């Protein structure tokens, strides 16, 4: 456990953790490209919390349970239905939630700017995000937020320890782990192996209905949500060709030479 | 697994299942008595996630429940505009003439082609607005019975490992205790089965007979789309003694619902409902609708076909069976949504009465059903399905026409079902193998690519929810006598025979299960027990299904 258990532990009187969560197409669903190629079909499709954000929520709740934080606040930016995602976070143990209404699919930079405003308001000691969302796989919001705030960042975290006004983050990097020590406040983005998120149990889902959920408008925060990116087209990957069983090596060589033209 | 640590919560009424019956009951309860607390659980990850139906629905019950359904934006957007019934030969489709007179129960004027999953999502929103507490993602795993009264259900434990032991993120189930519990699990509900056995609810009624429906939704080019076109077929490729047929409905935004139902009283152990469903698409009657389109989802579900004769006792101390849990589907009409909803509404009325009078059993439900149009409807059509069981497809069709035109549903006799569907298979050596063409990857597909489209998922590390009561029976009966019929009737590839040539044994791929319940019904020795897996598992059917 390290320093956390020592009596000399120095935690700020109030240490809030802010956890942004995104509503995405459920990971079990095979996404379907819209007939006009303008994007992925989301109407009538099961939506859930981005799995990496679940890991972020779990980590924040664990830090509070260990006494390293006093309050966990979840925030989601998007459409009204994102409040379902926030309710899930509340059922997992988050204390309160903020919904920022901004319309469909806000881009990472706009999201980071909204988060900056909320950080200024809430003054958290840590912001823990998922490393990326499984819908657009941008992997950008955490880094952009760190840049906007001028805070240290521990991305792709597989282990987090808070102690003495600092946070130690083990990062998953190519070929191993890298440990970084950051002064608080800081940004952490959660990787897959950080923890295994708990279930939102039925009693906790019932209790979560009574937890506070505040709704704000992105425009009221003075953030321009207009998209900077243009989606040119969205297409499904080409389907794989069916395999074929061949009778002999000679036949294989013949096919490789004349059909596949690789030898 | 009963854990002493699980929490419990009290409600006036607990409803198991978020389909049309459960949701209609919930809505009616709150309409009649706004201070009655109602809790509804649903094993699917969201309301609608496990709903499979054609579906052409008759809005009669909906109009009684929510007379302003149109203003409220109920998703009944495609009125039936044209309909055909075909008798198929291998190469031709013979249109049944004067359909509205020969098969008046099939007349669909005033009905709508819908995505029933979407309708359920909408009903759930109406119910929540009225204050019903709805919890999707939680499976009813256990019936709570105290002093011979049903006092609620317990949800399943979450985070139990394959070995049956609690894992790191274990969460015990929760007791949802209700003064009354309504079972709305749909056909062959796993808790309903326990309740029926405990109170002997099937005593004195015919065995239930079932069908298996397998469905695909296609998106087709706009120029081929004819919203509201409804087509049904019978005949080819089934032999005369096998009950079943296909449907094809144009609805929504360039969507086509295509599917096939086969009576689970079929005899030929080699029959594969899945492959029949695939090959019917190649028939000229259906093919032209699907060519150039793409398949977007796939699902399957068993349905009750017994009708009136097979309806069990409906109430017991502390609750009632509603919807297809009881078997209210009208088979000749091929519709069960309006009857399911009506039964839920009548049960709600009976429950509110029972609460007022402080009665243990909401027994007035039975009388309410018998006095309603629901009963009249099922009574009028009661002989049609058994006529098919007795005289085959052609004889049954002739009887159905006679019944409609001459007897007008008022025959002084009632035909009965004599066998359980699990008793009807003939040994493999006596059956002829049908020829099933290889999937072409354009119109026809294999099981696994189909299950993939149902977005089925189960937490991998959990006990297998399909339990063999006696594992050794598989080899001696299922394999030696019937050559593993489960490998064919399962539409999701759950049952697989491994090492067929050397040491045949059964492999159960439980994570593929789409919760159709066919194995629980059709297994020749009733050896397979379908139990609820961890809540939220199973298919994730999108809107459109």
TrEMBL record, chain B:
| Cofactor names | [4Fe-4S] cluster; FAD
Among the GO molecular function terms of this UniProt record, one is: metal ion binding
Q: What is its EC number?
A: 1.5.5.1
The protein's annotated catalytic reaction(s) are: a ubiquinone + reduced [electron-transfer flavoprotein] = a ubiquinol + oxidized [electron-transfer flavoprotein] + H(+)
User: Which SUPFAM superfamilies does the record associate with it?
Assistant: 4Fe-4S ferredoxins, FAD-linked reductases, C-terminal domain, FAD/NAD(P)-binding domain
Q: Name the enzyme's class.
A: oxidoreductase
**PANTHER family recorded:** ELECTRON TRANSFER FLAVOPROTEIN-UBIQUINONE OXIDOREDUCTASE (PTHR10617), ELECTRON TRANSFER FLAVOPROTEIN-UBIQUINONE OXIDOREDUCTASE, MITOCHONDRIAL (PTHR10617:SF107)
Report what the protein is called. Electron transfer flavoprotein-ubiquinone oxidoreductase
Recorded source organism is Acetobacter garciniae
Question: Lineage from the top down?
Answer: Bacteria, Pseudomonadati, Pseudomonadota, Alphaproteobacteria, Acetobacterales
């Amino acid at each position: 456990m390290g320093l956390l258990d020592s009596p000399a532990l120095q935690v700020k009187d109030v240490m809030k953790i802010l956890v942004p969560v995104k509503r995405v197409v459920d990971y079990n669903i095979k996404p379907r490209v819209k007939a006009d190629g303008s994007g992925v079909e989301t109407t009538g499709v099961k939506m859930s919390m981005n799995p990496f954000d679940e890991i972020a929520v779990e980590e924040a709740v664990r830090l509070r349970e260990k006494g390293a934080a006093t309050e966990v606040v979840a925030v989601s930016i998007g459409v009204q239905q994102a409040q379902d995602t926030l309710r899930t976070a509340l059922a997992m143990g988050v204390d309160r939630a903020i919904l920022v209404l901004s319309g469909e699919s806000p881009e990472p930079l706009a999201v980071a700017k909204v988060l900056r405003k909320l950080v200024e308001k809430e003054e958290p000691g840590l912001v823990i995000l998922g490393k990326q969302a499984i819908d657009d796989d941008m992997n950008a919001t955490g880094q952009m937020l760190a840049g906007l705030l001028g805070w240290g960042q521990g991305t792709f975290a597989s282990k987090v320890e808070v102690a003495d006004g600092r946070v130690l983050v083990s990062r998953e990097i190519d070929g191993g782990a890298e440990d970084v020590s950051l002064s608080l406040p800081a940004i952490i983005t959660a990787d897959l192996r950080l923890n295994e998120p708990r279930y939102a149990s039925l009693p906790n889902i019932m209790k979560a209905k009574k937890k506070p959920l505040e709704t704000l408008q992105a425009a009221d925060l003075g953030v321009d949500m207009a998209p900077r990116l243009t989606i040119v087209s969205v297409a499904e990957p080409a389907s794989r060709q069916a395999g074929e069983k061949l009778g002999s090596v000679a036949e294989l060589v013949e096919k490789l030479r004349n059909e596949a033209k690789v030898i | 697994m009963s854990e002493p640590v699980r929490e419990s919560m009290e409600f006036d009424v607990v409803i198991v299942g978020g389909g049309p019956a459960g949701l209609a009951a919930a809505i009616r309860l709150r309409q009649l008595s706004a201070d009655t607390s109602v809790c509804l659980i649903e094993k699917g990850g969201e309301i609608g996630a496990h709903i499979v139906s054609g579906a052409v629905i008759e809005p009669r019950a909906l109009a009684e429940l929510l007379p302003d359904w149109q203003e409220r934006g109920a998703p009944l957007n495609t009125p039936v505009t044209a309909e055909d019934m075909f008798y198929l030969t291998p190469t031709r489709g013979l249109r049944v003439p004067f359909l509205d007179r020969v098969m008046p129960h099939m007349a669909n004027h005033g009905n709508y082609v819908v995505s029933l999953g979407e309708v359920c999502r909408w009903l759930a929103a109406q119910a929540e607005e009225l204050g019903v507490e709805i919890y999707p993602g939680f499976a009813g795993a256990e019936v709570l019975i105290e002093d011979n009264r049903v006092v609620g259900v317990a949800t399943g434990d979450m985070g139990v490992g394959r070995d049956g032991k609690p894992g790191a993120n274990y969460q015990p189930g929760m007791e949802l205790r209700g003064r009354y519990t309504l079972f709305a699990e749909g056909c062959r509900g796993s808790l309903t089965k326990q309740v029926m056995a405990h109170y002997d609810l099937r005593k004195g009624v015919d065995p239930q007979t079932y069908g298996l429906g397998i469905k695909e939704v296609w998106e087709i080019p706009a120029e081929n789309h004819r919203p509201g076109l409804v087509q049904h077929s019978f005949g080819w490729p089934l032999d005369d003694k096998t009950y079943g047929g296909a449907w094809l409905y144009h609805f929504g935004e360039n969507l086509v619902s295509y599917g096939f139902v086969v009576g689970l009283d079929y005899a030929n152990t080699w029959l594969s409902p899945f492959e029949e469903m695939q090959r019917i698409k190649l028939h000229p009657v259906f093919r032209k609708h699907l060519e150039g389109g793409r398949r977007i989802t796939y699902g399957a579900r068993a349905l009750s076909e017994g009708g009136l004769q097979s309806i069990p006792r409906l109430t017991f101390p502390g609750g009632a069976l509603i919807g297809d849990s009881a078997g209210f589907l009208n088979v000749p009409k091929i519709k069960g949504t309006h009857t399911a909803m009506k039964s839920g509404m009548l049960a709600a009325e009976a429950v509110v009465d029972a609460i007022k009078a402080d009665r243990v059993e909401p027994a007035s439900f039975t009388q309410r059903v018998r006095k309603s149009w629901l009963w009249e409807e099922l009574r009028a059509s009661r002989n049609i399905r058994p006529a098919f069981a007795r005289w085959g497809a052609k004889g049954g069709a002739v009887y159905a026409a006679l019944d409609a035109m001459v007897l007008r549903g008022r025959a002084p006799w009632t035909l009965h079902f004599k066998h359980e569907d699990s008793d009807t298979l003939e040994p493999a050596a006596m059956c002829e193998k049908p020829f099933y063409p290889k999937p072409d990857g354009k119109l026809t597909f294999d099981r696994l690519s189909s299950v993939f489209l149902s977005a089925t998922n189960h937490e991998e590390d959990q006990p297998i929810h399909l339990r063999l009561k006696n594992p050794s029976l598989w080899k001696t009966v299922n394999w030696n006598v019937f050559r593993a019929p489960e490998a064919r009737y399962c539409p999701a590839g759950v049952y697989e025979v491994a090492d067929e040539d050397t040491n045949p044994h059964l492999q159960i791929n439980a994570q593929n299960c789409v919760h159709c319940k066919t194995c629980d019904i059709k297994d020749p020795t009733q050896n397979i027990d379908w139990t609820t897996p961890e809540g939220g598992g199973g298919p994730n059917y999108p809107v459109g299904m």
